[in-house]
């Protein structure tokens, strides 16, 4: 049995354990997209392995569909984690606030996307180039989310016992290793050593899964309220955004008359 097969089987096995803890601890209630993403990972792996073995001519199409679905899930997980962190004041925010969070991540992805490349990528197929851009872009976004939550943990009143930070930590660690390996790849030529670093990325995700098993096996700490400073800041931002939106939807009567001229 090759190391690739061992990492694949071990990863799927530990993923199943993580999912079991998610349902046992009812984490799926607060993080349904993350739960669906892990389930999708198991199903997607099984489908890709089956297609590669029995229907190799369809491997390209299945990979493309999987890449699109994986991208949507990754984006959803980022939005869900950010929105879940805001639980203490979500009742005071406009209903469309989660859309604003999604727009912010979309803008950040648009900024990172053009730089998510490297030497020789232009020679790849279309799907190959898309895969590189997607993987690097989401690695950067996951790292930024982890650093943001960890750096502002006191203001956000979250700790390492909160599920959101636990999930972000696992994703952040895996993403840092993935990004570091890609940067190293840009100075390498294809060969055995090249693939060994890819196996290191797979091993880092296995470590993240192990961390989630350890974390989810413990009870979550009660969610604390935000600090007054952070609460006032977020409500002020939401109030400003609400005022701006109402101004766009209901322009002053004077402006309407001017627009009709």
Description:
The N and C termini lie far apart (77 Å). The protein is built from ten helices and no strands. Helix 3 (59-85) packs across helix 4 (97-112), helix 3 (59-85) packs across helix 7 and helix 5 (126-151) crosses helix 7 (163-185). The chain has 261 residues and is mostly helical. It is globular. It has a single domain (3-251), classed as Rhopdopsin 7-helix transmembrane proteins (Up-down Bundle), CATH 1.20.1070. It is 75% helix and 0% strand.
Using the CA coordinates, give the radius of gyration.
21 Å
What characteristic shape results from the CA principal axes? globular
- Quote the CATH topology: Rhopdopsin 7-helix transmembrane proteins
Query: Low-confidence spans: pLDDT under 50, at least 5 residues?
Result: none
Assembly classification: single chain
Strand runs, count? 0
CATH architecture: Up-down Bundle
SSE sequence, one letter per element = HHHHHHHHHH
Average of pLDDT: 85
Number of helical segments with 4 or more residues? 10
End-to-end CA span: 77 Å
The CATH first-level class comes to Mainly Alpha
What would you call the structural class?
A: mainly alpha
